[in-house]
Amino acid sequence: MAKSTSEENNTRIAFYYRLFFLYVEPLSALSGAICAGVYPSHYLAMTEKIPSESSWLPLGMHVGLRQLANMYLLFALNEALLLRITSDSRVWRALLLNLLIADLGHLYSLTPLGYQVYYEFWNWNAMDWGNVPFVYLGMTSRLSFLLGLGVKSKRD
After folding, report:
1. C-alpha to C-alpha distance for 142 and 156, rounded to whole angstroms
2. Domain for residue 153, yes or no?
3. Which of 132, 31, 143 is nearest to 96 (CA)?
4. What's the rounded Cα separation, in Å, for the pair 3 and 102?
5. To 5 degrees, how large is the angle CA 124–CA 126–CA 129?
6. Spatial distance between the Cα atoms of 123 and 41, rounded to a whole number of angstroms
7. 1 in a domain, yes or no?
8. Using CA atoms, how far apart are residues 102 and 135, in angstroms rounded to an integer?
9. CA-to-CA distance for 68 and 74, rounded, in angstroms?
10. Which residues are 153's β-sheet partners?
11. One matching Pfam family, short form (predicted)?
12. DSSP summary character for residue 84
């Protein structure tokens, strides 16, 4: 008897992926959302590596940072809630592929800071640690999942 599509796509997902994608990364994105949305001057100062002397920002920049915060929140909720309700590998793979593409865009967005931002770890602040190595960790985790490392069918 042929198995249903949902039976074929139910997978046992390794503890590391569940921990990282359901808890660690969404909490990190949530902290970014809070920082960009609630403390936009501080967020911007950390990004530009300048002292935060004023809480005043141009209106457009304030709106843009709140929109960024909303995107971080969307990222956190998609990952934490959608992946939590299913073990269907198609859903996990689709969402993680989308996030992998977003990771590439996120890393590209740093190029105006100069290429040294990618490798001069001794100059990194908290924002850089979140923008560079943590993004690489997420990308590596997504690639590993997409390549099937630590992902097994429940039939196995």
Report:
1. 22
2. no
3. 143
4. 34
5. 60
6. 21
7. no
8. 10
9. 10
10. 11
11. DUF7704
12. G
**Structure tokens of 91?**
């859903």
- Residue 97 one-letter amino acid: L
The label of the residue with tokens 């994608």 reads: 21
Quick one: which H or E segment has residue 152?
Answer: strand 151-153
- Which helix H or strand E contains 13, and what residues bound it? strand 11-13
Q: State how far the Cα of 32 lies from the Cα of 99, in Å rounded to an integer.
A: 16
Q: CA-to-CA distance for 104 and 109, rounded, in angstroms?
A: 9
From first to last of its 156 residues, the chain has per-residue pLDDT tens of 444 454 446 778 999 999 999 999 999 999 999 999 999 988 988 888 777 666 677 889 889 999 999 999 999 999 999 999 998 999 999 999 999 999 999 999 999 999 999 999 999 999 999 999 999 999 999 999 999 998 887 665
Query: How many domains is the chain partitioned into structurally?
Result: 1
The verdict on residue 7 lying in a domain is no
pLDDT for residue 100 = 97
Residue 11 and residue 153: Cα distance in Å, rounded? 4
4 falls within a domain = no
